[in-house]
Amino acid sequence: MNRDQMISRIEDEKCWDIIVIGGGCSGVGCAVDAASRGYKVLLLEKEDFGKGTSSRSTKLIHGGVRYLKSGQFRLVKEALQEREILHKNASHIVRRLDFLVPCYSFPELLFYSCGLKLYDLMSHSSSFKRFAIVSSKTAFNLVPTLQTENIKSGVIYSDGQFDDARLLISLVKTAVKLGATVLNYARVFALSKNTQGAIDGVEFIDEETGRLFYAKAKIVINATGAFCDSIRKMSDKTAVELISPSQGAHLVLDKSSLESNYAVLIPKTTDKRVFFAIPWLDRVIIGTTDTPTKKIEIEPKAFKEEVEFLLETYCAHFRQAPLRIYSVFAGIRPLVDINKSKQTAKVSRDYFIEVDKHKLLTLTGGKWTTYRKMAEKTIDLAASLAELPARRCVTKNLKIHGYVENFTEDLERNRLSIYGSDAKEIQEIANQNETYAEQLHENLPYMAAEIVWAVRKEMALTLEDVLSRRTRSLFLDAKAAVEIAPKVARLMAKEMGKNDDWEKEQLEKFKQTAENFLCFVNFVSD
């Protein structure tokens, strides 16, 4: 991906078939779908790709076990089907993860075993068939850090796990390969209308250069997640807000907190959500919360009460308190609530598609697992509204960038395997220069070659792009990420032809961002 090339395409194109606003999973999914049908597509993201909620998930590709309890069978079945499709098309990123559900009574065992057996049957997938009932002894052997007291038995099932930011970048690359034009740091500040009052284009600023652009389109899709109401009000100032934002916080702990390749699901918590403890990239993620919030911020910060809740829940089910919190992150869920319920647990987790009176098409809500299906339905509608040539969706069998045929366990053990077919080129960069082969920090798995790759091939423009999303350094160990920041900034500056002032500015901005991830790293719950 080359940013200058993208700018040139924008300058040359007189009218796009579809413009997508938003570079998270919903927007990028739409760009992939539309481009794969042969439509001329432009995607604009005001920050970096995946800067918002799409890089701050629980890292699961799942059907949603807890939705069975509320009878949302259609939602679960669709998500399970999409889980299988995504695993098939991006096996280098999406992998199976086995879960243990500890049961503390026979009624619990009966309830959860019935529910999870149904979940297993609904999946129709041999890749994720793992349902089993195990004894308390087996449960302890599988997850040695569990509290032994009162556990009577356990239930095992499987779901999918992934690196959200890495999948997002792979999807961006897929869209580009299919002919889409994509641009990060391109902020839309106005929508234009034709004489009939229908939206027919956007005005945006390239935040890198300050240049203003106007792009004309047959239809515009608003896929800006939690920020969708701001775009909707550009179209119609009287639009009633759709989003009832909810914050989800996570803590990243040492792998000794779990000492297992199994994840643990606690189905009951005091806030009526499920609690996860998940092994991820040699760390453990615990979460999540469901906290109503009035603020919709690009850099949300976990509340002290959320951190306390997560630690208390962890300590109630595991033998000892975590040795260390490596990082804390939070994301804003774009929950759709037409009736504006005050309880986010009751707000729909389903996706929502709307067309306003000016023909602005908005896609919001939903989750990572169903991004492809959301995009399919959105592009079907967009093509119809814009009277584009009717073309069928092909993404069900579309391999995502980096896909490797016959992805084996040997390949999976290679740390660069998450890059898929790009891994070879990254290794070649490392082989060309001893400096590029160096590990950036003893507590982080990344080498300098990955920074070079991110700048050259993945449109990374800022220090945070690299340390937060092209690598997951800020999520895996916020303190270590701050420590390597000067070295990484220097490396980026060399690649991009930037001066010392740029390095200083990037370091200052990154430290400000990192504060939210660092704020509770020394926190101890009473």
Overall description:
Residues 341-347 have low confidence and may be disordered. Strands 3, 4, 5, 6, 11, 12, 13, 14, 15 and 16 form a ten-stranded mixed β-sheet that branches. Strands 1, 2, 7, 8, 9, 10, 17 and 18 form an eight-stranded mixed β-sheet that branches. The protein is globular and about 70 Å long. With 526 residues, the protein is α+β, with helices and mostly antiparallel strands. It has helices at 3-12, 25-36, 73-89, 106-123, 136-142, 164-177, 228-235, 304-317, 371-385, 409-413, 423-432, 448-457, 463-470, 473-476, 478-496, 500-518; strands spanning 16-21, 41-44, 60-61, 95-103, 132-135, 153-161, 181-183, 186-193, 199-206, 212-222, 246-254, 263-266, 275-280, 283-287, 291-292, 325-333, 351-355, 361-365, 439-441, 444-447. The protein folds into three domains: 3-53 and 165-241 and 343-397, FAD/NAD(P)-binding domain (3-Layer(bba) Sandwich); 94-162 and 244-333, 2-Layer Sandwich (D-Amino Acid Oxidase, Chain A, domain 2); 412-518, Orthogonal Bundle (Helicase, Ruva Protein, domain 3).
